[in-house]
Amino acid sequence: MRIAVGSDVVFIPRVQSLVDSNGLQRVLRPSEIKRSALDHIAGRIALKEAAIKALGLSVDDWLRIVISQPHNKPVVELLDMPEDIESIDCSISHDGDYAFATVVVLYR
Amino acid sequence: MFKTVAGLLDDAIKRHRKQVFCIERKRFRRKLWTYADIDEHADRIAGLLQSKGVKKGDRVGICAPNGPWWIIVYLACLKLGIVVVPIDVNSSEEFIIKVAHKTHLKLLFKTVYKPLESVKLETVELEQLSEILYEETLLTPTYPKISADDVLEIVFTSGSTGDPKGVVLTQQNVASNVQSLRKAWPIGRNHRLLSMIPLSHMFEQTAGFLVPFVSGSTVVYVESVRPYQVVKALQAEQITTIVTVPAFLSLLRRRIMEKAEASHIKPLLEREFKFARLWPRSARRYMFQGLYVQLGESLKLMAVGGAALPADLEAFWETLGIRVVQGYGLTETAPIATYNSPKAHKRGSVGRCLPGQGLRLAQDGEILLAGNNVFKEYFENPTETTKVLHDGWFHTGDVGRIDKHGFLFITGRKKNMLLSESGLNIYPEDIEAQLANFPTIRDSVVLFTEVNGKEQLTAVVLTDSSEVEVAALVQKANQRLASHQTIQHTIIWPETDFPRTPTRKVKRQLIIDSVQGNHTQVNQIAGPAQGGFTPLQQLVADVAGVPPDSIHDGTNLVSDLGLDSLKRLELVSKIEEEIGAFLEESSINTSTSFADLTAMVAKATRSPKPKLFTFSPFESTEFGGVRALLQLPLLGWGALFQKLQGDKLHAPEEPVIYIANHTSHFDTITMLRLLPIGRRRRVLVAAAKDYFFKNRVQAFLLRLILPLIPLDREGGIQESLEQIGGYLDRGQSIVLFPEGTRSTTGKLLPFKRGIGVIAQELEVPIVPLRFIGNDTILPKGKSWPRRGTTDVRVGKPLVFGKDGDYAGTTTELEEVVRNL
Questions:
Q1: Residue from the list B90, B569, B717 with its beta carbon closest to the beta carbon of A80
Q2: Quick check: ipTM above 0.85?
Q3: DSSP E strands: which ranges in B489-641?
Q4: Taking CB atoms and an 8 Å cutoff, what residues of chain B touch A24?
């Protein structure tokens, strides 16, 4: 068994320039945006970046990572999940101008 | 004749009810929307609008990309007499706020990708509409009477500076234009259009949506208008017609020529071009067959408008065998005034006046237009209205001449409007006003020029400052301009002043001619070697927040400029937006220098070859019919051993995915026996590629009688999703055994998580089944069956939304099958 962790912080106002350059579509799917607000979107981006780090993925894999929210807590999954992953846990936090996320991967 | 758009569309819905109006191409599926679907959804949106208290005469905005939901919202507003305010999805937040404020929007329909936090009004996200309609109990709408003079929409001209000007169009304005255009441009059921320019523009609304809608044609909407997606759609959907702007035709031509050059066939192609013109159209199409790979074989007609179509561009496409027709019009004329039809066609002309509309020239050559299509007024701007409307004639501000056959030729554009490649209006005055903020820039003229074979927005400036200083100012101005207004190239005018009229107005046309005619004197100063910066250099500098002169070939994007992942994302998005090159984000890594990036961008502007999924003939419904007969003896043989009891399969609306537990090879026979014979030709059973398809002879024989499709257990889920999505799109149902292998214990094995992904991503109903007893008839390891009974349990079809997680959905499905 092995544990991997990844975390990321996003400065919320910076997301605006990504929105303006129509770059958001490269990162998030419509179903992943529950609330069309910058802080929420920043949190989701931080979560994906943290997952990229924890899972050792490349920066092209934004859309391979899928965030859902079946209950109140976000869930991170991969479209094609490698067999050796037991589970992925995650958490997002906001304060003021910053959004922060952590992802913990438990390998078999 | 219909006097309202509401009446026109209502009639079309009645006539074409069951037909497909549009095809929505999504990531793994394509969704077909019939006229009836569009109509029923519009009724529900109307209910939603009424429950929110929006009523006739109120204004509602739409700021979203093209697609079926845009059409549905528009139709709902139309039925209720609500005034639509279409807003370009690329507009700046500032512009959207101005428009929303000015028109007192009651509600704004928008995309989730535009947060618009500073817009203080109720918004509804288009992407969430299907869920909202599903969850909320809606009023049954009551529709008011709509009359010809009711305002249909207010269309604003874009431009982030300057005050936005709203064109007020009535029901009759648009209805009459649609009907006139239909007479001149008879498209019909056999036409398939690809939607490319924003629906917030009247040209796309009329030629790309309303005329096809009333004609019973089909429109294809793609997720993005990236060249890759466009080329893929052109081929996969057999597109016959595109409605676009001249700049797109020139982009496509450039791609074709670049490709020809790369494969060293350019001289050959040029020779072919010379004598091709003498051949009939069909022969030319045959001759240039190779080029049609990029265009899809069905493409026959391109309708362009919005800007002047250069004669050589038109000739290029005509030579290839594709008809190019162009029209002329303005938002104020709702929008099409003249049209060059395939039958009455003159090169270089914008065509003849549409039937039922008026065209004449003023004494000074200004083009005047009249008819029911001419707009009512500028929104809350009587001064501007009286400037252009006199005795029912609209003064266009454009200058032209009319030949004796009634063909109009545009000789100049008083209004100077430019059009970006993506079809956005660019008002040079807006950009010039920004530059005028800097005292050292005395005056400027903004226009398009060709730099290294690409059309670039260029500012010609009058200044005494050095190139480096000017570049810095231009960069500052760019920060305040919308992305489509960004100045990509700068030229310093070599003389002390611009040519001017006696009243000191700049003679714009002379400057344009001089610059576009590659005047040597101008060109000398223009080259980047002199200190001007390449557009890519500007872009990188913009994103990194450094002056462009600090970027050299050797500059490392990550270590020198500190581009982190978010900034890299922004950079590749901007490169796509402004240069039209699609780069993967990972192409920029710690070792990428600016020179590498330049090379990548140059390469990426050439269009990639899309991969289309090909189906085996075994997988066709036609062969399925033959196979359903061939397999009758097998099923008869099966019936000797197997007695079925329990639930019957009441055939649900197809396509669906059937999932069942798996204990025996007899499961496939059971499945086929359960289905009525008429359905057997449309069902496919997923079989492990590594098990059933290893031996090619065996696979061939098996597929003659069993509807097996190879599913790669080890392969990527993306490919499987595309493959299964393709079958579903063709109306075929799929049988899956989510345990992945046969269970030998009699207990249900854990489901593979792929089934959760499939259930959610493909948005298809899942029918759960359980077979009990097949493992006693033919257990794993045995090759001959013995008699027995199979108890069949059938569950209700389940549909999964996008909210759930894959693992949760998988567990849920597993539980459902276990408890059957």
A1: B717
A2: yes
A3: 489-492
A4: 113
